[in-house]
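Project standup — Tuesday

K.O.: blocked on the structure for the chain from last sprint. Re-posting the sequence here as requested.
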Amino acid sequence: MTSKISSSKLFGRELRQLTWLAAVQAVVYLMIMPFRVLIAMSSMSSGNPAATDKLDTLCLQIGFDHLENVMVVLIAGIICGLCVFSYVHASVKVDLYHSLSLKREQLFLIKYTAGFVTFAVPYAMASALGVLAGALYGAFRWRLILEMAVCTLQHLLFFLCSYSGTILAVMMTGKVVTSVCAIAVLFGYLPTCWVIFQAYVSNFLSTSMELQALFNTSTGSILRYTSPWAFCIFWESEGMSGNIPYGLTGRWPSLTELCELAAIFVLFTLAALALYRRRRSEISGAALAFHRLEGVIKILLAVLAAQVAALIASELGSVLWEISFILLFAALGCMVMEFIYRWDIHLVLRHKGHIVISAVLAALIFFPIRYDVFGYNTYLPAKEDIAEMAVESSERMLTYPETVQQKKSAKNKTTSQKVLDYLECDQIDTLYAVAESGIKYAKKSIENDYSFEESTVPVKLKYHLKNGKEVYRYYEVGEQTYVDAMEKLLKDQQYREKYYPILGMDTKEIYRITAECYHQNFPELMRYYPVSIAEATSYADDVQVETETETELQAEDSYWSEIAVTDGTYTDYGVQIEVPQAKKDEFLAAYRKDMKTLSFAQIYTAMNALQVQTQSNRGTYDYDRYPLSQNFTNAVRVLEEIAQEDNTEDFSVVYG
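H.V.: unblocked you, prediction finished:
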């Protein structure tokens, strides 16, 4: 009975002590919801708006999909957690509370609940007043009440996630300063590791398509699980928004997402309670509440600092700089952490072994990846182990409708990977030479040797091994090696039709065809569309930035003078010709004839000057770009016929 009375009295006392916190929060929430609604509604009321316009204006101010409100809620969770449980950092207050006839679990629950109430009551009232403010101006739907209730529930869970994460950080530390640092570490450590991993892949594992695809498709869904705060910020990145219905104010949260939020705050609350039970009272005032964690946390942070420093040093092109930076920043990281722990600069070198461990760990992580010790970039399977291979230029801008219908096993692959799956062939000897060229230049890149003896081109390559393994790679390969290989592949007309979708595409699938014909590539065709100096100069004036200096303008004038030719045209000006519907079939037949007969070298050197717009889905279009040059004699002949008909409405001047 005594315990029950003490609990109720203590809870009331806690609420009274936190009245100031509730009042501050009430002012903030009134500003971001009802006050904002009143301003927005009053600013539009003078124009006698319709009821739907009033409702739309109201829904833009409150409800779902307001990141600024989410950030305010998360900050409120941090502030409440620090304020409510700050007593654990003062030994006098800890002794006072622990002398009460209450178990630690009960004391924790009372404090926790009191802090939550200071948020929940003002926020719920502000949400209700926001709806009421809109109703006063005639913007109201009964459905809006339900939607705001769900939104408020979601934001309460956001608060609890932030609140519980903050309390966990407080229980791990003995000072307010280190509690704030612990929150920053909990929030930012794993995202920083992810960013460093991205930098490693981009700088040192650049041949990987799979890892690049991971960053493109999974960054949001991975980052959201790095901390309770990140989950609240990135919850929309889960990729399930297509299954979430839209309400009046935005996207409804799914039941799964609400359950995940509840699970996160429960997990962090239980972890904080477990630490509170094990926490010794006399630890108040120390940097960390658990001394055994000091070395682990110090090494983890020092290794991270050394990794960042090593990445910077790698740009200097010397292994000596990399070693020096790793040693220096591993030492600085440990010394800074030691100073935070002891608050005595004379003790920063107290644990020299931690510096050695941090430097060694950082080196073991950095150097094997930096210098490809495990042969990732230079991986080349034996020719007899390969079942099929595929190659595609990284500079091509074509879509393959067949890739959309690939099996469910390919659902996690990128479009580039699906295209390579589609282009697989058994010409191993031909494509193996391309792979060998790619490995050659990959080795030179590892050594920071970019003195290539020939021009290179970026390509995507796939190995499909006989054991079923699929390996995707980016390579820089010798340009002539690539052209020779493609010449051999395109001798097979079936493969050529597969490689260039337009050769087998139904004419009805093509919505629009536009040719970009520049003077330097189509001199004969351009005589039908003269671009005068006046027109060119006018266009140049339009694209100039207003802030250009007089020197820049003079340089621009000099440039136009150099490229001007005697007939009054500019060599990098041309026309954009839209093929009329009446000529579409004829043009396609002529273009396909050229594509089937020209060598790959002639196709490869042509500009991507033919834009083919196809309708993939209702209201969705793909814009492919195909090669076009003077070598496409049949296609150019049809374009000349279009020009002779003087269809001035079907072309416009373009700048190259």
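K.O.: great, moving the ticket to review. Confidence is low (pLDDT under 50) at residues 237-243, 533-571. Strands lie at 386-393, 456-465, 470-478, 510-518, 573-578, 607-617, 620-628, 651-655.
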